[in-house]
Amino acid sequence: MSLFRLILATAIYVGTLAAGTCVYAQDSTARTELKRTDLTGTNNMEVISSIVEFKPGDEVQLHSHHGIESGYVLQGANIQIPGKDPTTIPTGVPILNLRDVPHGGYKVIGDTSLKLFTVHVVDKNKPLYEYTK
Predict the structure, then answer these.
(1) Is residue 133 domain-resident?
(2) In CATH, what number is assigned to the domain containing residue 12?
């Protein structure tokens, strides 16, 4: 099975299991963790599914992860990247951020929250977020 298919199957499986309301330790106050489990076949990686909500006025700090982040925009919103024109992240857009690649670095503007469903396949015992200064 290809790595892409493995990640996709894992994301769907974890999303299906995430019907409970279990909340784990937060690395971001905007994130509600739904489920955390070991990645099958390895003892040094885990899969974490979450719902993230950034409210109008919230700033999404530039950050990276020790693994892959995949997800889906549940509710799109307008954002402002410093020095750039405002833009929209539309509802229904897929998310894919690669290991150690910085992303974020914007402010949610307007009157609509940005809501994401995320699945991280990351190294165990490392912080979920590495903030870039």
Answers:
(1) no
(2) 2.60.120.10
Residues in contact with 124: Cβ distance below 8 Å, sequence separation at least 6, in sequence order: 38, 43, 44, 45, 46
Q: Among 33, 31, 37, which residue's Cα sits nearest to residue 14?
A: 37
Count of domains for the chain: 1
The predicted-structure confidence for 101-123, as pLDDT tens digits, reads as follows 999 999 999 999 999 999 999 99
Residue 102 lies in a domain: yes
Range of 26's domain? 3-125
Mark 70-92 as b/e (b = at least 16 C-beta within 10 Å): bbbbeebbbbeeeeeeeeebeee
Tokens of 35: 């489920």
Q: What was the pLDDT predicted at 124?
A: 96
**Tokens 């999303």 — which residue?**
15
Does the pTM of the predicted model rise above 0.85? no
35: in domain = yes
